[in-house]
Structures are given as C-alpha cells and as structure tokens.
C-alpha cells in the first residue's frame, strides 16, 4: 500500500517537473538521464533563482506599501490659487459682564463673593498649559462653587454661556473685508479656551456651537445678501491681497497657521496690545486627484482631514493630533484632562478641578508644549507622540510684523493680514509606484529568474488544485 502511494506521488511530481513552464524543472524529472551531480547542480540553480525571485518580489511589495509616494515640485505658478494664512485670535477678556450679572442675580451671593467668582472664572477661562498657576482663588472659592453647584465637569459649558459670541454681534469692525467682500469669523474651542478663527477650512468642525450645541452657527442678519467666504485664495494676478480681524476691546493672543490647520498652543506671538499688520507669503503642498482613493494611509504617510483616528476630534490635522497627545499625557500624569477639551465622547475622561490644574500642570510645561520628558536631566528625550503630516497643507512665512497704533480709529485692536508675494513653486504628493507597477515588477522578476509568465503562475495553481484532485480520484 505504501509502495503504491509513493509510486503515485512520484508519478505526479515527475509529470509536473517534465511539463512545467518553470525553466530548469525539466532537468529534475525523468525526461533526461542525468548524473546525480547534474541534478544537484540544477537544483541549486533553481533554489537560487527562487530565492532571488522571492527576495526582489518582497522588496517590490515593501516599496509599494511604504515607498510609493514622492513629493515633487511644480513650477507653473501662473495657474495657482494659493490659500491665504489663517489666524486664530484669543481675547484676554473672556466673560461678558452683563451676561455674568444676569447669571449671578439668580443666586444669593454677597458683593465680594460675586467679584471673587468673576475673577476665578475669568482666570479659568484664560488658563492653558502655560499659565494654570495663575488661576485666582481664595479660601472661600470652594464654598462659592459648592453653593452654585459648579463642578469641574461644568467649567466648559459655564464659561461658554457667560461668554459673548462676538461673531454674531452687528459690529462693523468684526467683519473681515477682502476685496469689499466678507470673510467668515467663527468662535472655536481651542487649547486656549474660546477663540476666533478666520480663513480656515476646519472652522465649522471646531466651532463651539457645533461641539456644544450640535448646530452650525449661522451668519448674522447683517450679512444677508452679502458674499461671505469661508476661505480666500489668491494668485499672482490679484496683487496685494489683504483682510482684517478687528475690534477686540482687550489685549489678544494671536496664532497664525495654515488654512488647513488649527492653532498650536506652543506657537504664539504672545500678548498683543495694538493692532498688528502681518505681511506674509505661503506655499502649498497638495496631492493628485486620486491619491486618497488609490493609496492607504501607511503608503502615503499622511492623513486627509476626513481620515481622523482621534477620539476627541472628528477631523484630523497634525496639530489636533498633538492636542490629543497632550490630553492623553495629562490623563496619564494627572488623572484628568483640562476643561477646554470637548469630552462628549464614547469614553469621557474626568475633568480636572482647578486644584489639579494649579498643582499638577505648572511644573510640566515643557512636556506639554514641546513633548520633552522633564525627568531626563542629562540626555533630552522626546515624549512619545507620533502624528502624521497633513496630506494637504500650506507653509506660512511672516515677512514682517509691525504695530499699526490705530486703536482710536479701529475701536479696538486686532490683526491685518497682507499678502504681496506669491509662491513660484509648490509641492505635490503623487504615487509613482502603483499596484500595476508592482505586478509588472513581480512578473519581470519571475520572468528573469524563472522564465515564468502569468500563464505559468496559473499553470502551477491549476496543477496543484484541479489536476491534483483529478489525479487522486483516478
């Protein structure tokens, strides 16, 4: 029985070797009467060819998975529209006195307690990783918060309700004019509390009304019949292009970034007490039209806005990813997260009380802002935070920033943005090694070393599936 089985297997293998389309296999069968050393010679050649085929095919596969995207340069700048920079402005006077007074009338507090609570909430609304230690409190603060049933989980909504949304006020100096048209301003939730962003593609996704009330903020009736842009782009034929964000009655903190990005709390121009004019220029990095559909995230090593893997943000940018890194670091080290993060997620995190904000965070500023481990004294070591680049982005360069000293004429302070120079080159991500190229590469490798074609691969599959089944059943 065993001898019969062995003979059947030997016949099947010899039949395959004698008729296989793989070069060299025929010398291992019985077609030619060869010396044993000749057979070992051909077996060595075939094994070497198989190894090289597999090795180069795996290299092609690795290239397809991880090295098939390049960033090239385009220079036909006459046809481009380049997005202007985006600005996020955070006023230092957050709470509205009139709204606060209406809120406090419903509670039985003394005059001193009212002022103390206002100072506490105002400093809390102005708090972030760089100044948590400046939150104002007294020995009576906890009693006031307990009397009003204010807990850490209500900080955000309370501050939101006591803050006036300046974007819906009918104030001329908050309208961003661009070629006598208007540029939308949106109140957004940031790591510096409630701020205002203009000329940004992500403003609606990060707006306070959308996050806290689940509704898109509508334009004020004063804009009816007027053309309002979400984002403005310009080109070399437009010449000097400018817009403004004016009318803030207090010192402000300014963040400038790409229209495809959000502010980074670690990159600020600091407090500004006068209107500043920023002269800027920018260049963009774009993608081919089909890159998103034709490639995976690991292949292109970047993410589009709609490919968010973040827990607290529905869109993806590198800076939002860094924000979530800070959030996770805070949770690991302090057991809670600051009040200014949107926390209505499937697994909400505990919100830090002001005691935790003042005690746990101040000595870790460098870690939260730059992701540097403060425990490493001799050798600086980065905290683990891996964030992919945006697939589409722009790089903004400030050519000049100067104060305008026009407070009395502008009824407040703000920023002016002017673009005079336009890029003569831009970058484009494109796929240079497609799936078709991979199959061609593997086919060429197999043809070079083994003489195989597509039909040769099909023949092997056929022989060890259908033909084997029929051979067994004979």
UniProtKB/TrEMBL annotation:
One Pfam family it belongs to: ASC
Membrane topology summary: Multi-pass membrane protein
Transmembrane residue ranges: 438-464
Coiled-coil features, chain-numbered ranges: none
GO molecular function, one term: ligand-gated sodium channel activity
Subcellular location, record wording: Membrane
Keywords: Ion channel, Ion transport, Membrane, Sodium, Sodium channel, Sodium transport, Transmembrane, Transmembrane helix, Transport
GO CC annotation, single: plasma membrane
Gene3D superfamilies xrefs: Acid-sensing ion channel domain (1.10.287.820), YojJ-like (1.10.287.770)
Similarity comment text for this entry: Belongs to the amiloride-sensitive sodium channel (TC 1.A.6) family.
Protein name (database record): CLUMA_CG015089, isoform A
Species of origin: Clunio marinus
């Amino acid at each position: 029985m065993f001898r019969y089985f062995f003979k059947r297997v030997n016949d099947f293998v010899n039949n395959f070797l004698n008729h296989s389309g793989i070069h060299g296999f025929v010398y291992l069968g019985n077609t030619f009467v060869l010396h044993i050393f000749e057979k070992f010679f051909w077996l060595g050649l075939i094994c070497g060819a198989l190894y090289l085929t597999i090795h180069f095919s795996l290299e092609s596969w690795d290239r397809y998975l991880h090295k098939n995207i390049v960033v090239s340069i385009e220079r036909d700048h006459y046809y481009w529209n380049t997005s202007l920079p985006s600005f996020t402005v955070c006023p230092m006077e957050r709470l509205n006195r009139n709204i606060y007074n209406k809120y406090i009338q419903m509670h039985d507090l003394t005059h001193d307690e009212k002022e103390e609570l206002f100072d506490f909430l105002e400093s809390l609304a102005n708090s972030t990783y760089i100044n948590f230690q400046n939150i104002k409190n007294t020995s009576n603060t906890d009693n006031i918060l307990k009397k009003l049933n204010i807990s850490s989980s209500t900080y955000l909504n309370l501050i939101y309700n006591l803050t006036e949304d300046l974007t819906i006020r009918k104030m001329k100096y908050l309208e961003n004019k661009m070629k006598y048209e208007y540029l939308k301003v949106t109140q957004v939730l940031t790591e510096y509390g409630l701020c205002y962003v203009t000329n940004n593609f992500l403003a609606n996704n990060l707006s306070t009304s959308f996050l806290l009330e689940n509704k898109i903020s509508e334009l004020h009736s004063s804009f009816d019949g007027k053309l309002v842009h979400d984002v403005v782009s310009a080109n070399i034929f437009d010449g000097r292009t400018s817009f403004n964000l004016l009318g803030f009655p207090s010192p402000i903190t300014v963040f400038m970034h790409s229209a495809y990005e959000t502010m980074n709390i670690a990159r600020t121009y600091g407090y500004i007490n006068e209107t500043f004019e920023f002269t800027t220029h920018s260049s963009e990095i774009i993608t081919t039209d089909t890159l998103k559909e034709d490639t995976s995230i690991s292949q292109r090593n970047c993410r589009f806005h709609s490919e968010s893997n973040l827990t607290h943000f529905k869109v993806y940018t590198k800076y939002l990813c860094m924000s979530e890194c800070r959030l996770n670091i805070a949770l690991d080290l302090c057991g809670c997260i600051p009040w200014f993060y949107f926390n209505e997620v499937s697994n909400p995190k505990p919100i830090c009380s002001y005691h935790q904000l003042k005690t746990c965070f101040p000595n870790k500023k460098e870690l939260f802002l730059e992701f540097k481990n403060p425990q490493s004294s001799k050798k600086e070591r980065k905290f683990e935070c891996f964030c992919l680049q945006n697939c589409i982005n722009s790089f903004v360069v400030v050519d000049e920033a100067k104060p305008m000293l026009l407070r009395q004429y502008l009824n407040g302070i703000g920023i002016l943005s002017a673009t005079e120079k336009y890029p003569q080159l831009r970058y484009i991500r494109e796929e240079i090694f497609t799936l078709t190229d991979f199959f061609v590469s593997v086919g060429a490798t197999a043809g070079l070393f083994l003489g195989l074609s597509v039909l040769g691969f099909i023949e092997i599959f056929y022989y060890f599936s259908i033909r084997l089944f029929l051979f067994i059943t004979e």
